[in-house]
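In this section we turn from sequence analysis to structure. A common task in structural bioinformatics is to predict how a protein folds when a small molecule is present, because the ligand can shape the pocket around it. The inputs are simple: the amino acid sequence and a SMILES string for the ligand, here NAP. Study the lines below before reading on.
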Amino acid sequence: MRLLYPAARDTSPEAMASGLRLEERAPAERPYLVLNMVSTLDGKAALDWRTKGLSTELDRRLFHHLRTQVDAVMIGAGTARVERYGRIMKSDELRQKRVHEGLAAEPVAVVVSARLDLPADLPLLQTPEQEVVIATGSDAMLQGTAARIEYLRTGDDLPLLMAKLREGHGVRSVLCEGGPTLNSHLLAADLVDELFLTLNPKLSGGAAAFTIVAGRELVEPRELALVSVAEGDGDLFTRWRITG
Ligand SMILES: NC(=O)c1ccc[n+]([C@@H]2O[C@H](COP(=O)([O-])OP(=O)(O)OC[C@H]3O[C@@H](n4cnc5c(N)ncnc54)[C@H](OP(=O)(O)O)[C@@H]3O)[C@@H](O)[C@H]2O)c1
C-alpha cells in the first residue's frame, strides 16, 4: 500500500489507522464522528445488498483497525441486520492495540433503530463481553439477548443521542460504519466530521442500489477537503474532512 497524498511513501492499513487521537478533536457537546464506507467507482454502497463484493483484504484490515481508534462504533439497524453484525473487536491483538492507545479494550457498539427492529439472535447481541447501546423510539426491550444492552429512548433525534453518548457514557469519538440511510441523517444533522471512503474499482449501475449517502436529501451539498489518499491492490483509500 502506498500513500500518494499528502506525501508519497509506503504505508499499510495498520499504520493509516494508528495514533489518530480522534477524541482530542471532539467538541464539548458531542463526540467527534467519522464515517467509514466502501463504494464502487459509481458510488454504490453494496452489490446485491451486501458489502462483501466491494471489500478487499486491505479494506477489511483498515476497517478493523479503524475500530481500534474510537470510543464507540455505530451502525444503523439496516446494516446490523443485513451484515449480521457480531462482536466489534475480533482479536486480542486489536484489543491490545486499543489499550496501548489509551482506549478501553472494547468499544461500545451503538445500534440505531427507531422501530427496534433487530433480531435478538444477532451475534452482536449474543456476546456477553459486548456493551451495546440501542438508540430507539420504541419503549420495548429485546428478549433473549446476552450482550450488556442499554436502551437510549432518543427516537430519531441524533443530536440528542450524540449528546447523551458524550455526557452519559463518556464517548468522545464515534466511528459510524453506515449504512447510507443513517449517514444521510447524520449529515443532515451536521454531526459528521470526517469520511474514510475506500473506492473499489467496479461500476455496478442501477438506480435502486443505494449510494453511500441515501434516504434523506441534504438541503445543501456538504463540502469536504481531502486529507489523504493511498493506493493498494487497485483500491483507493481516501480520507476527507467535512469543511464549513
Ligand atoms: N458500502 C458500505 O460501506 C456500507 C456500509 C454499511 C451498509 N452498507 C449497505 O447498506 C445497506 C443497508 O442500508 P440502510 O440505509 O438500510 O442501512 P442503515 O442506515 O444501517 O439502516 C437504516 C435504519 O437505521 C435506522 N435509522 C436510520 N436513521 C435513523 C434515525 N435518525 N433515528 C433512528 N433510527 C434510524 C432505521 O431503523 P429501523 O427501521 O429499525 O427503525 C432505518 O430503517 C445494506 O445493503 C448494506 O450492505 C454498505
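The first strand starts at residue 2 and ends at 5. As an exercise, try to locate the residues that line the NAP site and compare them with your own expectations.
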